[in-house]
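Late entry, written up from scratch paper. The run itself happened at the end of the previous shift, but nothing got recorded in the book at the time, so transcribing now.
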Amino acid sequence: VALQRGKSCLGPALVAAAVPAMAFAVLRPLLFAQPARLASRGFSATSTARPLCSRVWPAVLTSRGAGTTATEAPTNPLLDISGLPKFGVIDPSHIEPAMSSVLSSLRESFKTFEAELPKKEKSYEEVVESIEKMNFPLAYGWGVVSHLNGVMNSDPLRKAHEAAEPEVVKVSMEMGQSRPVYDALTELERKELTETQKRVVESNLRKMKLSGVDLDSEAKEEFNTIALKLSELGTKFQNNLLDASKAFELILTDSADLAGLPPTALAAAAQSQTQAHPPEDGAPAPTAD
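Output as recorded:
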């Protein structure tokens, strides 16, 4: 599983933990609005991707009639893509209805897009940017869920993540193996493009090939089965790693072993010890000293 960090619209490439390595390599340019692509449309590329998204995407999505703006005030925070994620109010119970809604809408939109694509002019805007905008609600919502699963892991969150993950992977693979999209990108590659646009198109074509777009039906079915299994194992590995990290502790009784640590680190260690092993009644609590 590719646990790489990418400067995408969501900052770290959070869906890497959910999508197999090859599949993620294919889908990353489709699922995330990269600064380089936005630069090709007149926006300033920057390494601080999140502020760029919060400024650009609400206007873009509103203009195309996609997504949810702040004025619509969705009750599910995972469906509100008008700005930064509302981590303070997101609950595991939001995940299933949000992902079901996003995936259903995406499947329907993409099916229509595929049907109309052969008749459309093969421009960068109509092909590449349309796919990015279509994918943004999924990238945003699932990115938030994956992030929370990594930093605020709990049994309810794990169960909700594991329940939604297979469908997220399936939809992503369906899009990454779309023949109409591949053919449109192939035609687009032959047209006059900016250097940045050409690089994006070539990269997407290469990655779609690696995702199995050219495989026959039987081989593609086997590929997708393996992809789902890799996704499941990747999430299991991540959870095991989190559990092992939480369970690990190193108890030091000689202050000489702490020589050189700053006061903030000593205070954090003392607090961690108190939380993990509350002192018995009347016993002194550990301190930074």
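Residues 217-247 form the longest helix (31 residues).
(Scratch paper discarded after transcription.)
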